[in-house]
Amino acid sequence: MPAVQSMYLDDSGSGSERFRSIGVISGPDCILSCVREELKSILGSASMDNLEWKLIRGRARVTRVAELYLDAVFECIKSGKVRIDVIVWDLHDRRHETYRRDDTENTYRMYYHLICNVARRHGIWEWNLYPDESSSSRWENVEYFLTKTKQIRLRGTQRQLVLNDSGYIDIDNIWQKKSHEEPLVQVADIFAGLGRYSRTEADTLPLAIADMEEEQVRERQPALISCDTRGSRNLSHSQKARVKLVKYFIERARSLKLGISIRTSGYLCTPNPNRPINFWHYEPQSPLDIAPTRDG
To answer: Could you tell me which of 109, 94, 66, 89 has the C-alpha nearest to residue 13?
Structure first.
């Protein structure tokens, strides 16, 4: 009997923010349950109830817990059966330059693209979904949108869909989870935050990371470096904590040869989407790929 497969999802960005993102951790429940227990242990040891991207604002304990979350993720992907995927989109690109753009409906479409992409990368077509209950998206509306698509079928519906390589993508169940009670949703939130933050700060992030590296060397060997590190010193406590976490993530990903790049574009991206951690920056698929509008 095949293992039950699940996706835990959360989105990031709202209002007037230019970039939006959705993160998902996916894989067999038997592995994800072990990851969940490890994350709970990390929280308990730090006397914390939960972890969210918005909490990474300069407190050393919170940043360290976020690093330990990343460590747990890096460990679990070694199984070859767990993935982290993040889709990031730009509301200022040509796809979104449309009158009366419907950002809510557009987010539903991005959930659809991400779910299909994750299933395809796994080569598995039957899933449970566990989105964040407090997500910016109303999940009863996301669920309704998914029932209208050509590739996803929700259990209990009779809609005939377009076949993929192995059949339809069947969604057996959708259960909304309270983020503060589900560490795997928190992982999705952290990665959605990493992807969106790196894109938002792409003009300054590589320099901030380089400055932070130089400061660390100077602290260890003050006589060897006398360079100006104003870029790092001018960061707020919140920015420093987030740059530090991105830097930690990049160093760990590089040590594991995960093929995640920041040097070329200035933000986190994965040139080979088959890698187990995939930052996907959505581009219009054709001239007809435009954002939905509020008048249909």
So the answer is: 89
Distance separating alpha carbons of residues 179 and 48, to the nearest angstrom: 14
Q: CA 45 to CA 22: how far, in whole Å? A: 28
Q: Could you read off the pLDDT of 199-255 as tens digits, one per residue? A: 999 999 999 999 998 887 877 776 655 555 444 558 899 999 999 999 999 999 999
117 contact partners, CB below 8 Å, separation of at least 6 = 85, 87, 273, 280
Q: Which two tokens stand for residue 148?
A: 């209208």
The domain segmentation of the chain, as residue ranges, is: 5-196+276-281
Name the residue type at position 273.
Answer: P
DSSP state of 168: -
Q: What is the pTM of this model?
A: 0.90
CA distance 204 to 200: 9
Summarised one tens digit per residue, pLDDT across range 105-141 is 888 889 999 999 999 999 998 999 999 987 767 788 8
In the CATH scheme, what is the code of domain 5-196+276-281?
3.30.420.10
Range 208-226 burial, b when 16+ CB lie within 10 A, else e: bbebbebbeeeeeeeeeee
